[in-house]
Structures are given as structure tokens and as C-alpha cells.
Amino acid sequence: MTSNPIRSIAIVGGGTAGWMAAASLSKFLKNLNCRIELIESEEIGTIGVGEATIPPLMDFIRVLGIDENEMIRRTMATFKLGIGFQDWTRQGHYYFHPFGQTGFDKEGVPFSASWLRLFQQGKASRLEDYSLMAVAARQGKFMRPVKAPNSPVERITYALQFDAGLFARFLRGFAEARGVVRTEGKVCEVALRPEDGFIESVRLENGARIAADLFIDCTGFRGLLIEGALKTGYDDWRHWLPCDRAITAPSAVVGAPPSYTLVTALEAGWQWRIPLQHRVGNGHVYCSDFIGDERARDLLLTHLEGKPLADPKLLRFTTGRRKKSWNKNCVALGLSAGFLEPLESTGIHLIQRGLALLLKMFPDRHFEPADIEAYNQTLAFEHERIRDLLLLHYSRSERDDSEFWRYCRAIPHPESLRERIALFEGYGRIRREENELFPVQSWLYILVGQNVMPRFYDPMADTLDAQKLQADLDDLRAVIARCAQAMPMHQDFIDRNCRAALKAMA
Predict the structure, then answer these.
(1) Of 27, 80, 123, 141, which residue is the catalytic one?
(2) Is the pTM of this model over 0.85?
(3) N or C: which terminal CB in the chain sees fewer CB atoms within 10 Å?
């Protein structure tokens, strides 16, 4: 059968999702002779609170061929080695979820099993001491990986913290330089083909009609195409993740920026603090069943380090996902596809993942149902595993100082999370399936950080010589400490490599 290629793509909505889509599609579809048009309205604006990322974003930047230092300067970015969790397990408690590798497997025995054996015997220190990213973040240090065989500095893993609005603007320039056409205007009507219900065109308030073979819905929570036109449906996950509102406010920089995101548990939710070069991003995520908006606003402002730079903004959301991310000839990205609170900084990653999977399964105008179903199953699985990790933070907290935390401790687990916790509570084993975002290490740090400790250690750890194992862990901890000590301060690294022209931006 002859080819029936996609000749036109309409991206409805801008912001981070829209311009990530435009940049990626214009890069990888350049030889398909495919017209790409992005429709957005300056009046509508964007949510723009997703400022913290995780390491896969660096692959997105590199595969597009973007100069990293230039992008960092243009987006006021800082570097991120992980996430610090304050007061989650109990008030006064702190743990760190670092990026990258921790330790090495030995003779087929996972590092987690080796560490747990010695930790239960009182012969190993806390898990974070064996991660260069965790130790460096604690000291306010940062550097990119350098070639140094058998050294932890060769495996430094990092992400970015940036101004999401500036990131979208940067990608807009990238996409328009590669032929993407931006159209200003509001969509007021979506026309469906009568024979199959596919989207045929959208009409703008100015009367313009834009037809396309493939539509990308980046219209945010309202899901103008995926829900408004196609009635796809939504899986509401508030019975697992009850927070439904956020208040955000930028604040002035106070001191050198840490090389991590800080999230602090509060009486009915939590607050993020994301350091950028020109300001600090702050937000209070909370459950409106347990706290009023004014009280939530006051808590946010009370916990700011610097003076607020703008009035707080209120966002309402429903955690969950669309029943289908891809329906007929429409693919939803970003908030149009669903919302999971940014506790583990996964929002931008899910945009990136949706785009990568779309390119892997890119259709022609036949839109094969089996491919669409495979796409939906993969993204549904990834949303569910992220949901499980987020729920773990809430449901395994020891806090009982408020009605909210008592409620969270009683939330029933989905079977997938219940099985994972049961497996870990036995011998400390963690099973990871192929398409999961978070590696075994992430689950290990969160489980241990939330004081979910196994009753025993993996019996295979006893196959290792006790003295050699002790010496290896002691040596790893010492090497990590020396490497962190030699690293430059985070601010110094930025100043030397990618400092933004702050006066020019004022």
C-alpha cells in the first residue's frame, strides 16, 4: 500500500508543552515536508510553575543540539543534583533523593543489599553518604562530569532549575528558526469529521480556520481538543493524591543558590523552593479539604526566604490523567494529558516522554489503532508508577500532627504500590519494570527516607566477604567525601560558565 504521510501538524497552545513539541517535531520531522503550526494566544497565558526538572531533560537538550550554557543563561537556570525532603517522615527529619548512581553491585549482589547488611549491623552510615550528588548538594557544590576513570566525578548526574516562561521563549526561537509557524489567536470552535469523529480543523475568533492531519493539544487543564472536542474522559486520582490547589509566588534571591530543590511538608500539604539565578520559585501545594486558601497563602508567605516579587497566584487542579493521551488524530501533552503534583519534578519529563514516544510511533494518515493503543498503555503505566512514588511520600509518613497527615496515613494503596512495599519490607528487594521512569535507587532513597525499613537484608549479601565489604564501603564513603571537597561551589561554577546577564534582563 502506498504511503499516506502526515503533511500538517497543528499544535494548539504554547507554553512549555507547546514549544517543546514544536522544537522536537521541527528537528526530527525536517525531511518529511510537514507543515507545523502552533496556535497560541497572548491573552490566555500559561501556568508556568514547572521550573524544576530531572536528568532526562539533559538528553532532550543535547539531542536537539542546543548549547547548554547558552540555554542556561537565557533561562536564568541553576543546576540540580536532587531533591531535599524536609519534615516529611516526621517534623525535624530530613532526607535527600539524589540523582545518579550510588555505589556498585558486587559479584551480582546489589549495592543496596550490601549497604543494608552493614547498616543493620551498625557498620554503615546513612545512605546519602555514599552518593556524590547528595554530599555535593549538602555542601553547595556542583560540577559537570569529567573524564576520570573509576572516579565518581565521571558519573555526576544533574538536571536544571529554570524559568519555565523563558524556557518556552527559548524553544520558540529554536522552532521558528526551523520553519514552525506561530499563529496568534484563540480557538473558539473545533470541527470533527462526520465519518469518523477525527478532528478536521479549528476555527479562531478572528474567523481563520486551520486544518491539519495531526493535532497536538497543549491547552492546559481544560484540554480543549482531547476533552472539549473528543470527550476522552479523565481518571480522577484525588482519592490517592488529595492535594488539589497550589499558591505560587516568586521571591528575591537570598545568598548563593543551593544545587537542589527543597520541598518542605506543611500542615496540609507541602512547599517547594527552587533557586534560579534571578529569583526563587516558591509554591504551596495543599488540600482544600483541610486548609483554606487564605491560610495556605499566609503559610507560603511566612516561609519565603526573601521578599515576594509578585502577588501570589492560586491554581486549582485535579490529580490524575486522561483515559487516553492519544485519541483519534489528537495527542495531548503536558497538563492536557493529566496532572501529577510536582513533588518529584516529573511534569516536564512527561511532556518529553510523550514526545519521544510519539516520534517512535509516529503515524501516517491511517492512524493505526494498535499503535495508538500501545502509546496509551505505555504512558498510562508511567503515570501510574509516578503516582505510586508520590503517594509513598504521603502514606508512609509518621506525622500525626494534623488531620491532613492522619488522613494521608490511612490512604489505601493501589496494588502496584502495595506489592512494591511488601517486597521491600521483607529483604529490601526492589523490582523495577522496563518502562518505569524512576530507577531502583530512587525507590531505595524514598523508602529508606520515609523510614520504610526491611525486616531482613538480602541473604545473597552474605556471599560477600565481610571484611572486604566493610573496607569497600568505607573506601567509597571516603572517596565521595574527597571528590565533593574538591568540587567548586555551585555559584562559582555558574559564574565561570553560564552566568546570566541579570542587568540586561531587569
Answers:
(1) 80
(2) yes
(3) N
